[in-house]
Amino acid sequence: xxxxxxxxxxxxxxxxxxxxxxxxxxxxxxxxxxxxxxxxxxxxxxxxxxxxxxxxxxxxxxxxxxxxxxxxxxxxxxxxxxxxxxxxxxxxxxxxxxxxxxxxxxxxxxxxxxxxxxxxxxxxxxxxxxxxxxxxxxxxxxxxxxxxxxxxxxxxxxxxxxxxxxxxxxxxxxxxxxxxxxxxxxxxxxxxxxxxxxxxxxxxxxxxxxxxxxxxxxxxxxxxxxxxxxxxxxxxxxxxxxxxxxxxxxxxxxxxxxxxxxxxxxxxxxxxxxxxxxxxxxxxxxxxxxxxxxxxxxxxxxxxxxxxxxxxxxxxxxxxxxxxxxxxxxxxxxxxxxxxxxxxxxxxxxxxxxxxxxxxxxxxxxxxxxxxxxxxxxxxxxxxxxxxxxxxxxxxxxxxxxxxxxxxxxxxxxxxxxxxxxxxxxxxxxxxxxxxxxxxxxxxxxxxxxxxxxxxxxxxxxxxxxxxxxxxxxxxxxxxxxxxxxxxxxxxxxxxxxxxxxxxxxxxxxxxxxxxxxxxxxxxxxxxxxxxxxxxxxxxxxxxxxxxxxxxxx
Length: 554
Fold this sequence. Notes:
There is one protein chain. The chain is α/β, with parallel strands linked by helices. The chain is 34% helix and 19% strand. The strands form six sheets. Strands 1, 2, 3, 4, 5, 6, 14, 15, 16, 17, 18 and 19 form a twelve-stranded mixed sheet that branches. Strands 20-22-23-21 form a four-stranded mixed sheet. The chain has a three-stranded antiparallel sheet with strand order 7-12-13, with helices on one face. Strand 24 (543-544) and strand 25 (550-551) form a beta hairpin. The two termini are 13 Å apart. The model has no long low-confidence stretch (mean pLDDT 94).
């Protein structure tokens, strides 16, 4: 069986100019990055063209058995193209952290991939490097301001801005810097986040124009004064230089699927520690470039879809036409308590025990958000007809169809049935609404997410969180959306509680504001903004042969 990278390397790619034409982009609207990549000029948004239908692909809570959300997203787009629809796909860029850490590459799989796969998974067009540079420029200017006399009266103990690097490096979570004497800075406790958790990433992905990007950067809070007043990047006079570093990174990237469907790949915040969606700019360009736009949100629907709908759609004025919820029988059996080694045989009891995870996600999309939806089951050879029938029966009881997907093995051909159902759903009337009114208090918004989306009983706040909420409310930051930082593996904040747990409470240990992004971040459980490498990282299996060909990348 061929690996994903072997399939991608054997593919015959179209020149990016041909892909641009399929996306109704002129020669003047793209900037070439070689033969197979391009940046899209933001002037495209001035075109007077009706937006296409927006389709969100989300999933159940992930398991080691795999679900295939990105693969389904790409395969669905190719399936829509095969049934004659004018379609584009909008995806996030992979972070180097998981590429070299647990997952390996992240550009789809099998015969449903975006290419050039190696470029997309590694440096691509340099967007993440630009984000890291802007983040760390702000950190450097902040510490330099303190060193040069501290005219803004910043309390070094109340600095909230951290440096970042796009790598899983637990050694950098907590550091002490500025050592070596008075010529080498002011000693203080510091730390690093992974680049995808940087507020700069969120700002870039939520900005609606270059001027909006600069305004958002100016509003970023980097710390507090000795008398607890917030200090911003604008006060440090850093926003202009940061915008200069991000000017080109703001432009969406154009790539292609293996079957030549245009793919806008741009931005990449994680959904467990950030808002988990590709950029507003890429989505808007995509909506001007096709009649159907297929996009995804990170991890399960309790994280990615909730943030896509409650944050991104609210900020950008987007309204999805349909939602696809991805699952596998294998993953549902893991949610039912089976070990990964026990998944190959039929086990209806474990499947029925794990199915509530899928059903809660389906119910949330339909009943909380009021959106038409379909369940896409990635079928494995070990899935039995009885297991598939059970999934269909339980979903049908909620008024949702189940479509079998074979896009990993067959590409767009394996997504045609799903494409037909999505087209049908896009013709249905939706009653899209948010999970909460942003005018509610911080606690009321967190409570709404926990009870309506997670199925929990309520929220426990640590003493630190209580103090932070009171401070943010006093500063006027209580009337913006909430971004929950939570484990992706469970509806709860305990990753061991699989399926659809009940009678639990979520513990919020810290609450901070991302004023530039425009949301409050609530950190729950033991979630961290700098992951670590596993015992056997994917990097150990990645290599380059004597011809320069990359091997082992997924």
